[in-house]
Every structure is written in structure tokens, then in C-alpha cells.
Amino acid sequence: MIRLVMFSNFGTKTAISSFNFGVSVTLIGEVVYSRTLSSLKDKCVCASKILPESKNKKFEGDKDLFVKQLGQALSYASKLISYAQGFMLMHEATKDHNWDLNII
């Protein structure tokens, strides 16, 4: 837990609150976990030397356009998911903290 707090105190606190209120905030949780995993670069480099290369076909379309559109789609989807999960968490927190929020 100490390592997670180092990377994202806000994200960690939000994830813990989600457990306490029984609300899934997977996007925020995954961001916290990803930051933790990214700190393990040395292990990833070591693993890449052991694991075989992918045998998938190479992409033959417009790579720049594909990457741009994929990035836009992921950005939009992550915002929708993040807001939805955040509102669900605040809705549950209103019950515990007696907040007067009319969210849902």
C-alpha cells in the first residue's frame, strides 16, 4: 500500500473509498495499478528477453490515422467511464455523509 500512495494519493484514496462504499471505480483503480506496474521497468525489460515475439500480422493501414483515432476513442471512453464511476461513488457517499446531492 505504501508504494501505491507514493504514486497517486488521490487515486489510492478514491479506490479505498470505492471499496468502503461498494462502488466499482475500475478506471481509477487501473490507473493506480498501472503507475505501480510502470515502476517495474527493469522486470519488464528482463521478461521481454525471455518471452517469445508476437506472431501477429503487421498492420497494413494508415498507422498514424489509426493511432490518432484510437487515442481519441480511448480518451472519450475513459472520460465517460470515469465520470459515471465518480458519480456512482458520490451517490453512495451521500448516504454515509448526509450530503444533499441529487445526482441520480
How does this model look, in words?
With 104 residues, the protein is an all-alpha fold. It has one domain. It is 74% helix and 0% strand. α2 (9-21) packs across α3. The chain is flat, with a radius of gyration of 19 Å. Residues 1-7 have low confidence and may be disordered.
Question: Tags for this entry?
Answer:
single chain, 104 residues, mainly alpha, 5 helices, flat
Compile the SSE list and pairings.
Blueprint: H1 2-7, H2 9-21, H3 26-38, H4 41-50, H5 63-97
Helix pairs in contact: 2-3
Strand fraction: under 5%
Q: What is the SS-derived class?
A: mainly alpha
Rg: 19 Å
Question: What count of domains describes the coordinates?
Answer: 1
Q: Kindly, what is the distance between the CA atoms of the first and last residues, rounded to a whole number of angstroms? A: 32 Å
Number of strands: 0
Shape: flat
Largest sheet: none
The helix/strand order is HHHHH
Spans of at least 5 consecutive residues with low confidence: 1-7
Average of pLDDT: 81
Helicity range of the residues? over 70%
- Provide a count of the helices: 5
